[in-house]
Amino acid sequence: MAVEVIDVPEARRYEARLDGESTVAGVAQYIRTAELVAFVHTEVSPAYEGKGVGAALARAALDEARAANLLVLATCPFIAGWIARHPEYQDLVYQARSRVSD
User: Is there a contact between 33 and 55 (Cβ–Cβ < 8 Å)?
Assistant: First the structure.
């Protein structure tokens, strides 16, 4: 089954569908700024679990962040775990800068 992922900016989420179906199989919700995209929640419908929907959402969303030159803040445990298992995306991870002076 092919998973199609599209960005739906008005809903602030990526949506995944399988093989051209109209039913949304999964979503990855985000908050985007000019410099950063924060992934806050990812959910795959139980009927589509184990079919690569979550991985497709993560890969498409992170590839788009890279293309837009955005850093990623993964507050969503799924996206954070996916990045941890795919080191080729580690360079996208936002690193907080300390504001404490010595």
Answer: no
